[in-house]
Known about the structure:
The protein is α+β, with helices and mostly antiparallel strands. It contains 5 helices and 5 strands, in the order E-E-H-E-E-E-H-H-H-H. The chain has a 5-stranded mixed beta sheet with strand order 2-1-5-3-4, sandwiched between helices.
Amino acid sequence: MVEAEVRMPEEAEVGPFVRIHVTVNGTPREAEVETRTLLVHFIREELRLTGTHIGCDTTNCGACTILLDGKAVKSCTILAVQADGRQIRTVEGLAEDGKLHPVQEGFVEEHGLQCGFCTPGMMMTTVALLAKNPNPTEDEIRHAIAGNLCRCTGYVNIVKAVQYAAKKSQGGGSK
């Protein structure tokens, strides 16, 4: 019996690479990425911004939600090369000068998280919602976060957190 030689591909044979330029949380970045690299993997592995979570890789859970040019998108559905020349905002870019963003504050104050796995995606979805609709109704909030799954809560406190952030963003006090 003759054994067939099994040859593993060299790393350089995996695929073509492209240099991309993005602005992440206000900071210009550039990197060489394999053309098949998903944006979520680029953010986590290349940029080391691990607040963007990988949950399902099928767009169902929303844990990977970021803002791309101000729009909430699931970064597991976009190739890193598609973000070339664009603005990316992750949960790490919400706080400014050591002060929590109203959305982050809302999730803390209203106990809008338990395990915290879905929280970054929920927060980024909320930021996009409030940019578009600064005073959403409960139904509008529930519709907006429908693409983000939380396996720990019944969403009641998440909705309260969004309402808190909306009020706070409009100059209202807490609770």
